[in-house]
Amino acid sequence: MSSSLLTPSLQFPEPTASTSVAHAVSSIIPTAETSQKHVSAYHHDFVQHLIDYEIYPLFHPKRKEPRNLSEITRTVARRRPSVTFQFSPEQFKALQTKYRKCWTGEVVMPGLLATVAGKSDNHSASNLLFENLTPLTNGVLVDPKPDLYDGVHPRQIENRLREELKSYITPSTNPRAPVLPNFFVEIKGSSSDMLANQRQAWYGGVLGARGIQKLRSFEAGDVEPLDDKAYTITSTIHAGLLQLFAVHAIPSTHAEKPEYHMTIIGTWFLLTSLDGFLDAVSAFRNARDWARAQRDELVTAANRRVVDRLTTPMNRLSIAAYLLEVLSQDRWV
Q1: Are 242 and 283 in contact (CB under 8 A)?
Q2: Are 249 and 216 in contact (CB under 8 A)?
Q3: Is pLDDT of 110 > 90?
Q4: Is 68 a residue whose pLDDT tops 70?
Q5: Which tens digits make up the pLDDT trace of 3-60?
Q6: Which is it for strands 55-56 and 259-269: parallel, antiparallel or unpaired?
Q7: Exposure pattern of 81-107 as b/e (b: 16+ CB <10 Å)?
Q8: Whether 168 contacts 181, CB under 8 Å
Q9: Which of 34, 131, 119 is nearest to 82 (CA)?
Q10: pLDDT tens digits, 119-153
């Protein structure tokens, strides 16, 4: 289903001589009085603030699509036979009756999301504050708290790699929380702000894409860290409407940090018809599986680069020389 007809149209006019970017963000430049984090997705300057840091939302004139968008779209669109067999017309009618009465995220969250997600062995966390990451901009943004996110278990990443990148890939100080998140869900009921929900998903997705980019850049060698591909998916469920988005990084034309771009993958109605529901559930689960495959592959490759570097002949000689020096100075006593 075409997403352009279902997503609120946002206009981003190009700055003119009379519209200063500095003026546009002057209200959220940190000062001695307002240095604490105070800008959330509900703040009137949230979108412009991220744009000023080359983080582009849906439909922005400068936004670019990821090179692998067609691959992602094809993968997500496949109907899963397991989903078809899981839900009968009678079960769907019961779901319609139950969830059309939901008006708050607190009611929707434990029920509808659990139904859409199904059983999963992903390493996930819900409502966990991302308080451990390097600020995305200048420190004024409130730490995000995704309704759900998937990552890898910390033990899956080599110690040295995890330690050096912790401020980009370890969102929580909880030692068992998932790291390297690249799949996010924000869910709200009918009475909530749909655009704010989308902005929250955008914010989390960019943090995920930044972590992926840092991982790909770590001792990359011949690997191109910025390949114009997306490895992160973020999503929203709002009043029975599912939307999936890709977030990816590209080189900036004039800054050291990369640009980040959000692109819609698709939109599905969960509660309109059984066919639409089955397509939506399939899309969600396919997207989740795709994101897991990306992070597992990237972690394996990064771990291999670390191990290979430690086991090169030069490094073996350096380690041997260090041990000889330690022994000669009787440091073991």
Answers
A1: yes
A2: no
A3: no
A4: yes
A5: 433 444 343 444 433 333 333 343 455 544 445 788 999 999 999 999 999 999 998 9
A6: parallel
A7: eebeeebeeeebeebbeebeebeebee
A8: no
A9: 119
A10: 999 999 999 999 999 999 999 999 999 999 999 99
Tokens of 142: 């409130």
Displacement of CA 139 from its chain's centroid (Å): 19
State percent of the chain over pLDDT 70: 78
The C-alpha atoms of residue 27 and residue 32 are separated, in whole angstroms, by 13
Instruction: Put the strands of the sheet holding 148-152 in their side by side order.
Output: 55-56, 259-269, 241-250, 230-238, 179-188, 148-152, 123-125
Chain position carrying tokens 């869910």: 187
Reference 232, options 109, 49, 68, 116; nearest CA is 68
Confidence check: pLDDT of 100 > 80: no
Distance CA 193, CA 43 (A): 12
Q: SS3 for 261?
A: strand
Using a pLDDT cut of 90, give the percent of the chain over it.
66
Q: Are 205 and 233 in contact (CB under 8 A)?
A: yes
3-state SS track over 152-186: ECHHHCCHHHHHHCHHHHCCCCCCCCCEEEEEEEE
Instruction: Measure the CA–CA gap between 71 and 316, rounded to whole angstroms.
Output: 42
Residue 113 DSSP symbol: I
6 closest CA partner among 52, 48, 59, 46: 59
Cα 198 to Cα 186: distance, rounded to the nearest angstrom:
8
Length of the chain: 333
Structure confidence at residue 309 (pLDDT) = 77
| Three-state SS annotation for 290-312 | HHHHHHHHHHHHHHHHHHHHHCC
Report helix, strand or coil for 225: coil
